Amino acid sequence: MRMHVFLIVIGLSLPLPGLSAVAVAAASSLRPLLEDVVRTYEKQHPQTIQISYGASGVLVQQILRGAPYQIFLTASDRFLEPLNKANKICGDPFSLGAGRLVLYLPKSSRLSLTSLEDLAKVLKNGTLKRLALANPETAPYGAMARQVLENLGVWTSAQSRMVFGESAAQAAQFALTGAVQAALLPALLVRGLPLASQGDVLQVPAKLYQPQRQAVALLCPHTPAATDFFQYLNQPAIAQRLQAK
User: Fold this and answer.
1) DSSP class of residue 142?
2) What HEC string does 59-119 produce?
3) Measured between alpha carbons, how far is 32 from 193 in angstroms, rounded to an integer?
4) CB of 74 within 8 A of CB of 80?
5) Which residues of 209-245 are buried (b: 16+ CB within 10 A; e: fewer)?
6) What is the C-alpha to C-alpha distance for residues 219 and 52, in angstroms, rounded to an integer?
7) Quick one: 93 and 153 in the same domain?
8) Computed over its alpha carbons, how large is the radius of gyration of the chain?
9) Nearest Cα to 143, choosing from 219, 76, 65, 69?
10) Burial (0-12, 13-18, 19+ Cβ within 10 Å), 20
11) Is residue 37 part of a domain?
């Protein structure tokens, strides 16, 4: 019996047959900054990192259904709970800090807002006709955006003017293409994309929502190469590049 247990534990770090790249699942809000980190890593190591981006909740369901990801970067550490219960996490995850939300106004919107109270006003009077946010059911930043709109008293009344992206990245794309007049987006994503130069950015006061803590977890099973990349991400200088500001 002891021998069988020993083999199972050791097997978690044995090479997985047919896998050459390290398969990573990551919240779309991390994409611009994570891709820069991966480029640096691949220049220094003879290893390919293959990343799939999406809403954290969607990625969790893929992992639970057997998707062969070896590392998971989530926009909210609450999504680690179902993975823990399913024994999908090896070792201790680490935090990337609390995610922050901003209101982004593309120049094409011609809206002049100086506060979130102004956002509530233009939603109520119909001046703002299309507001983008991520799906609150599967994307942590969508859930935070919903809290903001609820606290402003416009969540129910302005439903018809909301445009939901499958992820924070899709909500940002709506703003980049001018499909919406405003968007509630992760500060991290706005920092990594050319959004700030193409519009105005307002910080959303933390009193209007509960920030979610971003986290990185090593999944079971995984290869030694995945362990190496996980440890690389956990270096203070590297983790700081992915920190929510």
Assistant:
1) H
2) HHHHHHCCCCCCEEEECCHHHHHHHHHCCCEEEEEEEEEECCEEEEEEHHHCCCCCCHHHH
3) 6
4) yes
5) bebbbbbbbbbbbbbebbbebbebbeeeeebeebebe
6) 15
7) no
8) 20
9) 76
10) exposed
11) yes
Beta bridge pairs of residue 193:
none
Location of structure tokens 């959004």: 195
Question: Is 103 exposed, middle or buried, given 0-12, 13-18 or 19+ CB atoms closer than 10 A?
Answer: buried
Q: How would you classify residue 230: left for phi > 0, otherwise alpha for psi between -120 and 50, otherwise beta?
A: alpha
Residue 167 identity: S
> What CA–CA distance (Å, rounded) separates 141 from 168?
7
Contact, 156 vs 87, CB < 8 A? Answer: no
Q: Write the CB contacts of 197 (distance below 8 Å, at least 6 apart in sequence).
A: none
The domain in which residue 188 lies consists of: 101-203
| CATH number of the structural domain spanning residue 235 | 3.40.190.10
Distance of CA 23 to CAs 36, 72, 207, 234, Å?
A: 17, 9, 37, 17
Q: Which residues contact 74 (CB under 8 A, 6 or more apart)?
A: 27, 56, 59, 60, 80, 140, 214, 215, 216, 217
Residue 225 lies in a domain: yes
What is the chain's pLDDT, residue by residue, as a tens digit (245 residues)? 333 333 333 333 333 434 479 999 999 888 888 998 999 999 999 899 999 999 999 999 999 999 999 999 999 999 999 999 999 999 899 998 888 999 999 888 888 899 999 999 999 999 999 999 999 999 999 999 999 999 999 999 999 999 999 999 999 999 988 899 999 999 888 877 766 677 889 999 999 999 989 999 999 999 999 999 999 999 988 888 777 55
Separation between Cα atoms, residue 41 and residue 168, nearest integer Å: 25
